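One such shown below:
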Amino acid sequence: MVEEGESGGLRALSEVLLSYGERHFDGTPGQKGARRGVWAGVLLMCGQFERAVAALWEHPETEVEAVHLAIALAYHGLLRVPSRAETNDTTPLSLPTNGPPALALSTLIWRYVRQFVKMDAKEAIQYVSTICLSADQGSGVGKEQVESAWDLVRRIIVLANPGAAWEELVGGFRPDGTKFSGFIEQCAPLLKLSDLKDYNNQILIRSAQSSEENSRTAEAIKLFNLAGDYNTVISCLARALGNSITLPNTDENARNIEKTAGEILRHYERMNRATGKERDAVVKLLKVREAMEAKDAGQAELCLEIMESIDLIPMDGDVSKITRRGEEFRDLPEALQRNLQTFLTLTMDALAGVHQKIKGSFVADANKQITLAALKKKSRSLMIFAGILKYRMSPDVYSYLARLDVEIAL
């Protein structure tokens, strides 16, 4: 067989055939006698594999054939892929002036699978894994192909629909706390992921970061948890709860985050994982949600009891202690600091609700006065604490607290 570069060989033949062009072989699209695929077959015959795939890809009715032909060529080591610098965003085919044609397999695969990635993420992963068939190409191109495949896997994880199918894709935890691997981890050899550490770092953690950036917080938390990055899980939970604490009970995403936070906390308590300020913040924020629900249900006493148990606001009347706690507030996790106004108004509302109930009750006057005096002391303590941190809240909130404090004092 003659070599590609020999005089009168494949290169010379391809130059002659290319001069005729697609219309000479396939005819004019839409006209009688027009064919489809003959031109691609001609290009294949003369060794122009990359051009053959591109010729099929240009027509919607032969896109599927283009993708599978490219995969077959890559499998047999017959497909040239360009370097990242030479890849063209507009077309998969690269025609460098100083080299042979090349075809961006990753671009072709992504444009194909993005049509069904949400409906069938597993199928998309299988196609993406074929990009790694070109991992042995030289000059660093093979490594770039593997990195492109990893990038597309991460993109699929972020785009895939949440639910049971998503967990089958990435893995998860059974009710008894044992871990099960997902489809992507099972495909690790095909994706050139050498070990679990590689899988965690390249796929799970980076997908978690992208998920959080795309407001898919629940999925980000699960991914960090699967990767064993427990401290980041807790930090992510704290941020998410801090952002969603004031959302209404009807907000499904906020409730899902609270449910996930509760499940993970219980699991971490059993395994003694991720202790520290951020975990304490998650516990406190979940308790605040309980207090808010109690308030909405008209249970002011329970709301106040929960807020006192959290111990975010000192209410024992000790001015020196209140001052110290006000100064220490800046050292708390940001998720708690950001919600100061929520904590203060919730607690003051609970105090006002209990105060109103006690004043209208038929309790013995002596007992009533003792209870009212205790409520007044707590209200005053809250106002001293709020005064120390006055610069952290809006004037309207501070005025609201002051008005309720006056009502409780009467």
About this structure: Residues 365-388 form the longest helix (24 residues). The chain has a mean pLDDT of 87.
